[in-house]
Amino acid sequence: MSSPDASDLARINYETAKEEFEQGRYRQAVILLEQASALSERASPLGGDIQIWLVSAYQSVGDYPAAIRLCRQLSRHPNWATRQQSRRLLAILEAPRLASRPEWNVSIPDLTPTEVAQGSDRKGSNPRGGRRPPKPRPLREPDPIDPSQINRSDNQFVWFALISSLLILGALIGLS
Predict the structure, then answer these.
(1) Most CB within 10 Å of its CB: which of 48, 49, 91, 147?
(2) Which portions of the sequence form the region Disordered (predicted)?
(3) Where are the domains of the chain?
């Protein structure tokens, strides 16, 4: 059993790791989740949650063998929800990789160094260092419709539908 101090530290590392993961800092999330896993009772529901997040973090940094190995261990976890989640993740991890051509992929460059350099050059800009939101454009009134352009010819379908509806309604009343 772990002491209450270790349990609290495990929960703090776990929550911090989730924030790091959601910010895209996967390597830092792996480190924090490994620490949280070592401090927690692995057979507990919290220990299972920590390890499930660790599987996702391993996958995000490209360490598929560690993710698969941990998923296989978790498929025998005492907590039913953890077992189910690990089996779902294992199916995804072991699925065959589809081949894709390079022109199908989009490469997103890492702009972190550029943003840091630009943030120090700006004075009086947005205090958070991000872009300012664009100003909303005023709504434009639609052009008025010229009444001479409206087709006012008789539509035979309306009469056909009205008469058909009346005949069907009359037949239903007659049958009842």
Answers:
(1) 48
(2) 109-149
(3) 4-94
